[in-house]
Structure formats: C-alpha cells, structure tokens
Amino acid sequence: MDFQISPEEKKSIRRYYSRTSLIVIVLILFFNFFNDGMCLLCAGLKGGGFDAESIALGKKAFLSDPVLNAIMSYGFAIIADVAAVIAGIAITGKGLGEKLRPVGFDGKDIFNYTVIGFGISTIGSLVSLVLASVLLTVQRSLSGAGPIDAAKTAQELRGSNPLWLDMLIYAYICILAPILEELVFRGVLLEALRKYGNVFGIVMSAVMFGLFHQRMAQCFFAMTFGLVLAVAAVKTKSLIPSIFMHILNNTFAAILSAGARFVDISSLKGMNTDNFMDPVKLKALFAAIIPLLIYMLFIGLTRSLALIYTFVKGMGHKRSNGVLFIRSEQVAQRTWKIFFTSVPWILVMIFLVIQTIAKPM
Question: Which regions in the chain score pLDDT beneath 50?
Fold first, then answer.
C-alpha cells in the first residue's frame, strides 16, 4: 500500500509542527532570555552601572542575597511553565480538565509505572553522569582550572538560606514544579506532538523534557524518566499518575539533597595517614563517611530493585508478545520525516543541545 503524502498535506503538517514549537519557544524565552536579561538588569542596578566591572560586582551582591537569588532561580521558571501551558492550550485547542480526572488507572498502575520509571531512569542517570564527568573534565582542562574542592562544594551545599525560604524552595521543587512540568510536557506538548502518532509524541516529548533541563548531569535521566511518564499519561489518559510519579521523584531527590548537608568531609581535608588508628582521626573519618555510606547504600539498593523489577516486567511483556503502541508507515510519513525538517524545531533543538553541553553539572 502506498503511504506517500501529497506536497500540500506535507506543507500543512510542517506548519502544524512549526506552531507546536511555540510551546517550547515560550519556555525558552521566559526561562532563558527574559531571566538572563532581568539578571543582568538587576546586577547592573545593584552594581551601579552596566559596564563589565559594575555588572560583575552587582552579580556578586545579587547572588549573596538568598531571597533575590531564589526569585530569579524559580520565579521565571513558574512564569515560563504557565505561559507554555497557555500557549499549548491555544495551539491544540484542547483543555486539560479531562486529563486531571482520577479515572483510567488504579494503585497497581501507579506502582508499576513508578518502579519502572525509577528502573529505566537509572540507566539514563548513569549515562548522564558519565558524560557530565567527561565534559566537566574537558572544560576544566581547557580553562586551566584546578581540581574540584570537594570540601568547599559540600560546604556550599549546606547553604545559608533562612529556614522559611528553604521550605518555600522545597515546596516548589517537590510539589509545584512537578505539577507545572507535567502540564507542559505530558499535557500540552505531548498532546500536540502525538496528533500523528503516539510513539512519536512520547519519544519527542521525552527528548524535549531531557534537553530542557539544560544540564548534562540530568539530561538522559530526565529523558528516560520522561518516556515512562509519557507512556503512563497516554495509557491512562490522565496526568494524575505522571504528576504523582514526578512529585515522588523530586521529593526523593530533595530529601537526599537535604541529607547531603549532613555529610561533612571538611574535617578530612589535609588529614595525613600517620597513626591513622588514632581515635580522634577514626571518629572524624566515621563522622564524615557514615552518612555518605548510608546514602550510597540506599540509592544502590532502591535503584537495583527497580532495575530488577523493570527487567522482569519487560521480559514478561516480551513473552506475551505485548505491543505498547501500533506503528505504521503511514504514521512515520507524517512524523519523523517532516518534524526534522521543521526549521523552528531544528533551531530549538540546536539551542538546547548547546545549552546542555555547556553545563555539565
């Protein structure tokens, strides 16, 4: 059967894809350009001028203010997500009310998708960390920077934010950000991209989700996790499971990040190995590494169990000749071949890839 499409239909589909790119373009405009512009403006005002020296001085003062720093770090992200949702609803002509109803799934579905999501994203996380380490090493080598001071990095993790501000930041990271990101990536963007095929929509929304983190250390983890979130959204016809999974993931990461504050390796800096069995040195050693060991064991155990569960479920699905989604040449003609000749999407992906490579960690 001939699945070739006419030039007129091809132009129509390409115009549609160009319109869908506005969802991500809106995100980029607010999250990158407007944010950076406001940071420069505030730095110039704080520094007393807009020359390079004044802006550098203003940035230093700006970053030392935890409230202003938090507003710039998270405020524009909220605005960007809301604007992208509005743009997506306008483009697709579909609201999100139907997708926010608690129907089409049960507790077993959420458990399966959550564990499989953690399992598959473990592979993506390892890939991200390896690539990020390589990029960071190359960048520091080219710039002539010395090795990373682990003690200083750990001290920076502890931060100096007031308690109320930390609570607001964690509320955003654990609750508001997952909800907004699901509305954007599994709500409007996935809905827009799956018009001509579920597989295409799932894969490309996950790719954009990973790239939009704009850090290599998070990119492939977010992509693989995004695949499972998108499959859950399509299969259940609801955003509730993916929102729950995203909240759980971010909360899990936030707890571990908060726990990192108790890992103090500064006491080990400069410690020599002479008389290493000295009780004082042993006490300092165990005080530093026990929280780290607990952290690593917990991560290793949960990720390993999730991987095993994912493998078992995957083999069972394969043995039953299960198919997630039916693919056809007719769908392929209207997705991959046209999407990757859409100039707006090409520019968006080039920009995000550059941003991701430029920021390893």
Answer: 1, 150-158
- Contact yes or no for 193/205 (Cβ under 8 A): yes
**In this predicted structure, what is the pLDDT of residue 278?**
63
The confidence score (pLDDT) of residue 281 equals 61
Domain range list for the chain:
103-358
DSSP code of 276?
T
| Long-range Cβ pairs for the range 327-333 (8 Å, 24+) | 327/197, 327/199, 328/3, 329/3, 330/3, 331/196, 331/197, 331/199, 331/200, 332/197, 333/3, 333/4, 333/5
Is the Cα torsion angle 14, 91, 221, 331 positive or negative in sign? negative
CA-to-CA dists, residue 176 to 108, 168, 329, angstroms: 25, 10, 40
Max CA separation in the chain (angstroms): 81
Task: Output the CA–CA distances (angstroms, integers) from residue 95 to 79, 192, 307, 308, 353, in the order listed.
Answer: 19, 12, 36, 38, 30
* Number of Cβ atoms within 10 Å of the Cβ of 354: 11
Instruction: State how far the Cα of 319 lies from the Cα of 316, in Å rounded to an integer.
Output: 5
Closest CA to 161 of 258, 247, 93: 258
Task: Give the per-residue pLDDT at 21.
Answer: 93
**Chain mean pLDDT for the chain:** 82
